[in-house]
Specification:
Length: 611
């Protein structure tokens, strides 16, 4: 559960680039976001000007003896103006969220697509997964960088424009007052920020603590652990872990709050110094008769406003800097180089009615971080239309071999060839179109049976074909019994009326899905692991019908199940230990014959005991 610290790196994208990126995204996804932002800046500046001038303007009118009617009109205009600006601002703020959410959703969609479409080895690479998780954190909620940056940008612009206006005004009256306010506000900001940044500097520590708490919570809720939690009584252990990490997080949080308190105290002290000195200067000018009462009130208001804008500009700039760093991590994920070729690879259309040859030429493969090769110098040619069985002990490398053939990994050494051509040159997504597969760990989405078999939205599914495949996979009768037949939802995670199929039924459904894809090469990795013996034998008998003339690779730990294949490979010690037909290997009397003998004795003994 420990998260290793990663080396600090410079962000690939700067603040200006990230702001421009967000503006471009808004332009593409929802232009209203930009219009609302501009409206909010205008309202913000207008509100600050009205607040600044309202009292001095009225005072000035009183001073020059304006008629009561004119005075009332002036007050009315200011009041109306302020009400209108406030109403428009509230309206824009309330509605800003919709467009901003759609821009954030667009970014979430792109990040999900990046993960779904990246080269397969990335999906098993802890560093890549960590970067994806980190990137997605900036899109988690309205308060995270991917959305909150709009508030920061509009506020920064509002504060900056107001700052310039106040600066011009104050410099006219008393340049020293402006300079003093600016220097003390900046000092207060930087000193406060230095103290406050403690939490930011310790964000990795905070992230690691939160990650541990989230991990314990997610494991407690994970359906896959539900049985283990009960059988092994894991609940107290999980509760204890949660309590431990909560306490550690509380300590961290309390420490960060103490830093905030110091920053606030410093801020108050410097504000006292700044305003006191500025007001002193203004009072001095007024006493010397160099300022009228209206001017005095105007500058007096401007002093506190000016400090507020200076601090605001710095604060928002700091916030924008942090949000920009987070956005940079999001954009950097899309730039991670892909080991496989996709759009830039050679197109490889599927040739219908063509029998493909697959070849592994001197292939070695080592998992990242492993100290030895899982497969070493393997040479194998799968002939057009051949039905190949791969057997071997657990961990021998059967699945790895399949993954290399399917193009999920590139060999560490050697080549995988399709019809004599190295597959690395092709668009890998085109290559995947050549394979139908049932993997040991399969996935179903919480859609209908038809959707899962056809792998498309319900209305697009070709129902006669779906039923044909369900029939071939031997699961059609079960689906007919379901309340809504092929329109029944699978699983109860999303739909309350969903059904849970047994492991064997699910495996057959996955077989139907593989048949429905109708690809020229079929790969089945232990497709009978969850089937009962009758269903298993039924599948063997129909294997030729199922795979037709396709080139097929069939992995099994049951040696007897390979009889119907043209050739059997026994994988051992990282290579092909033996190969031939089932009979040839038995007659050879080698490892295969030995393992077969052990298995058949076990089954016969088991069968006799049953009888
Ligand atoms: P089989 O299918 O024959 O049971 P596998 O091909 O799944 O065997 O695994 C072969 C070896 O490679 C095993 O020692 C296994 O621990 C290792 N291995 C499998 N997958 C990975 C992985 N993603 N990362 C590291 N090692 C792996």
């Amino acid at each position: 559960m420990e998260q290793p610290e990663t080396k600090k790196q410079m962000p690939a994208y700067g603040m200006a680039s990230n702001c421009a990126f967000m503006v471009r995204r808004a332009w593409q996804e929802c232009r209203g976001v930009l219009a609302v932002a501009a409206g909010l800046v205008l309202c913000g500046v207008a509100a600050s000007l009205l607040e600044l001038f309202v009292v001095p303007a009225i005072l000035e009118a009183v001073e020059r003896g304006a008629a009561p009617g004119a005075l009332a009109r002036l007050i009315l205009w200011f009041t109306l103006g302020m009400a209108l600006v406030r109403a428009l601002r509230n309206y824009l703020e309330t509605n800003a969220i919709f467009g901003r959410i759609s821009v954030r959703s667009g970014l979430c969609r792109d990040l999900h697509m990046t993960f779904c479409r990246t080269s397969f080895p990335h999906t098993e690479d802890p560093d890549y997964i960590k970067r994806i998780k980190k990137a997605s954190r900036c899109l988690d909620s309205n308060q995270d960088a991917g959305e909150a940056i709009w508030t920061t940008m509009t506020e920064l612009l509002t504060y900056f424009i107001s700052f310039v206006i106040y600066l011009l005004l104050l410099s006219q009256a008393e340049p020293w007052t402006a300079a003093l306010c600016m220097v003390l506000s900046a000092a207060s900001y930087f000193a406060g920020e230095r103290i406050r940044s403690w939490r930011y500097r310790h964000r990795e520590e905070e992230g690691a603590l939160l990650h541990k708490m989230e991990y314990v919570v997610s494991q407690s809720k994970d359906m896959k652990l539900a049985k283990d939690i009960r059988i092994f009584g894991l609940a107290p252990w999980l509760t204890e872990l949660y309590g431990k990490y909560t306490r550690l997080y509380q300590d961290f949080y309390a420490k960060s709050q103490r830093y905030y308190l110091w920053a606030d105290l410093l801020d108050t002290a410097l504000a006292f110094l700044r305003n006191g000195a500025a007001y002193g200067l203004l009072i001095n000018l007024a006493l010397r008769g160099e300022l009228s009462a209206a001017q005095f009130v105007l500058y007096f208001t401007a002093v506190s406003g000016f400090s507020q804008w200076v601090t605001g500009v710095f604060t928002k700039f700091g916030e924008l800097h942090r949000q920009s760093l987070e956005l940079s991590t999001l954009r950097e994920v899309a730039d991670i180089p892909e080991p496989f070729r996709f759009g830039d690879g050679r197109p490889l259309p599927v040739k219908r009615n063509h029998l493909y040859t697959l070849e592994l030429r001197d292939v070695s493969f080592r998992y990242p971080g492993a100290d030895h090769d899982t497969l070493s110098h393997v040479n194998l040619t799968i002939r057009p239309g051949e039905k190949l069985a791969v057997v071997g002990k657990n961990g021998a490398g059967k699945t790895t071999l399949i993954k290399l053939l399917c193009g999920f990994y590139d060999p560490t050494q050697g080549q995988v060839l399709l019809d004599g051509e190295d597959i690395r040159q092709y668009d890998r997504r085109d290559y995947y179109k050549h394979f139908s597969a049932v993997f040991q760990q399969f996935s179903v989405l919480a859609g209908t049976v038809a959707e899962n078999v056809a792998q498309t939205a319900g209305e697009k599914a070709d129902l006669p074909q779906v039923w044909d495949c369900l029939e071939k996979a031997g699961v059609a009768d079960k689906i007919r019994e379901l309340p809504q037949r092929e329109n029944t939802h699978l699983g109860r995670e999303v739909y309350l009326d969903g059904v849970d199929l047994s492991g064997g039924q699910m495996q057959r459904l996955m077989l139907a899905r593989a048949l429905c894809k109708n690809a020229p090469i079929v790969v089945l990795d232990e497709p009978t692991a969850a089937l009962d013996p009758i269903a298993e034998s039924d599948l063997y008998q129909r294997y030729s019908d199922l795979t037709g003339t396709c080139t097929s690779v069939y992995i099994s730990h049951r040696l007897a199940s390979t009889r119907f294949c043209d050739r059997v490979l026994l994988i051992e010690n990282g290579g092909i230990a033996e190969e031939g037909t089932h009979e040839e290997l038995l007659n050879a009397g080698g490892r295969y014959a030995y393992l077969f003998d052990i298995q058949s004795k076990y089954y016969t003994k088991g069968a006799m005991e049953d009888e």
